[in-house]
Amino acid sequence: MRPEPAEHGIGCTVICPGGVATNVLNTPSHRPERFGGAAATEVTPAGGDSGQFRYRVRTAEQVARMTLRAVRRDELFVLTDGSMRSLHEDYSKEVPAAFDTATEFESDPVFS
Predict the structure, then answer these.
(1) In Å, what is the CA distance from 91 to each residue of 27, 68, 96, 97?
(2) Rounded distance between C-alpha atoms, residue 95 and residue 54, angstroms
(3) Phi and psi of 76, rounded to 5°?
(4) How many CB atoms lie within 10 A of CB 55?
(5) What share of the chain is helix, strand, coil (3-state, %, to 5)?
(6) Which SS3 state, helix, strand or coil, does residue 77 take?
(7) Distance in angstroms (rounded) separating the CA atoms of residues 19 and 79
């Protein structure tokens, strides 16, 4: 998507946040009645440890400042935690396979 709006002077930045300290873990206690009502169930945060690696939990303000800086610099990605590099590198290995899948889809007579 990035090249198309760039022709009109519009940038495109993707944010891939790691841990962000928000109040989202309290959402079950505020669920509207139309969605089943409040739940007493507590959501347990990972606490900065996913089991595979430790990660940095940033404040929402820090993430916002990082994002604003990236937008001003016309950077493609905002990654909020450098320690998550290996995770993103693992995911990026899947991208070529996704292109292969798209090509298979295009050549499959069932889907053409």
Answers:
(1) 29, 25, 10, 11
(2) 25
(3) -70, -45
(4) 19
(5) 45, 10, 40
(6) strand
(7) 11
User: Residue 107: which H helix or E strand, with range?
Assistant: helix 94-107
Assess contact for 75 and 66: CB atoms under 8 A: no
Q: Express each pLDDT in 7-53 by its tens digit.
A: 999 999 999 888 888 877 677 777 788 888 887 665 555 555 555 55
Count of C-beta atoms within a 10 Å radius of residue 72? 10
Q: How big is the chain by its Cα radius of gyration, in Å?
A: 19
**pTM reported for the whole predicted model:** 0.63
Instruction: Tell me how far apart the alpha carbons of residues 46 and 100 are, in angstroms, rounded to a whole number.
Output: 34
